[in-house]
Amino acid sequence: MSAHPQLKSTSGAQAEAxxxxxxxxxxxxxxxxGLNGVIRAVVLAATRLGWECHGIRDGFNGLxxxxxxxxxxxxxxxxxxxxxxxxxxxxxxxxxxxxxxxxYPGRGADGAPVETDRSGEVVAxxxxxxxxxxxxxxxxxxxxxxxxxxxxxxxxxxxxxxxxNDLDRTFSTFGFDTAVGFATDCIDRLHTTAHSQHRVMVVExxxxxxxxxxxxxxxxxxxxxxxxxxxxxxxxxxxAAIAQREAAGHHHxxxxxAEGAQPVGGERAVQAGAEAGRxxxxxxxxxxxxxxxxxxxxxxxxxxxxxxxxRGGSPSGFDRVIAARFxxxxxxxxxxGASGVMVALGPEAIELVPLREVxxxxxTVPAAGDTIATARELGICLGDEAPGAGATGV
Length: 394
Ligand code: F6P
Prior knowledge:
Blueprint: E1 8-9, E2 22-27, H1 35-48, E3 52-56, H2 61-64, E4 74-77, E5 104-107, E6 113-116, H3 119-128, E7 133-138, H4 140-151, E8 156-160, H5 176-197, E9 200-205, H6 212-220, E10 225-227, H7 235-247, E11 253-258, E12 270-272, E13 281-282, H8 285-297, E14 301-305, H9 317-335, E15 341-345, E16 350-354, H10 370-377
Parallel strand pairs: 1-16, 2-3, 2-7, 7-8, 8-15, 9-11, 9-14, 10-11
Antiparallel strand pairs: 3-4, 5-6, 12-13, 15-16
Helix pairs in contact: 1-9, 5-6, 7-8
């Protein structure tokens, strides 16, 4: 066992392993601000150890479908290649959410879409390229892939990424803070137009099946209503909260709705259903609520979708720091012989947690948690109960 003194392992996953000389690095799934910071940290830390670092383009497609890549599908990266990229959004390696090796999209003999497990090919292709280990930067899907590759004998360390903050076993993923900051700025701007025109503004934010972005941005931006996937809502409860504000002399309201929110007994808004190699695409709940609230309140309502704007732009200072810490810790973990683990933000330090405890899980907002309690205590309507006395917000 060769644990690194600066890494806390909650897994016991470290084992004696052959020394690392060459690693692969890829970013998978939706992009998030901070990915370039991780790439930079991995490359710089690996180079200091004398390792070669090879960037794989467009997630696993750089290995499985190199002909689809713009530019070299696999490229050696040195310090010069990652110079001054830590503050840039996106990922210099490219990414895709259509290249999951466990469910790789293709066509069957009859032309119908099929999904194939090509993870064995990934392991073989890594070996053929002399890669001793792989750093996989991604969300829950990517952590599931990383776990499967580890189970097939490849040395893998995962790095948690997503603006949605829905990965288990880490206090935060990078990208989340930047997304919340931008959404908060947008909500701030909507207050003045909503107030001036006595309107209800509905703001739809991303987050998939978790309401972290909506809850945090909603509280930070002073929203009057916040709707989360974790708490199914009733339009009547929202209308009652708006009416209560009206009666108290506040003629505008800001409603922040997570894309995955749904009414009690109703359906989520889905833009496109799941298909071979890709998950369902959420979206449209804001427009639906705009119409429903206009009918229920008689007020003028407008909706705005922040969508992919939440993924763009420069990472916040917080995200830059955890991206750097995650990337450096991933290299430290490999140097210490770890595999099958994800670097995670713990209360005090970066920790290593087993990928099997992360893969396939979604960390949702705890309904009994203190942030939800805080929202209620501030008088914010969460759509699940009639507003209490004085719950008008400001
Ligand atoms: O997981 C990140 C995320 O931004 C989700 O919040 C959103 O539902 C999804 O990606 C959108 O993905 P796409 O880029 O395919 O539209």
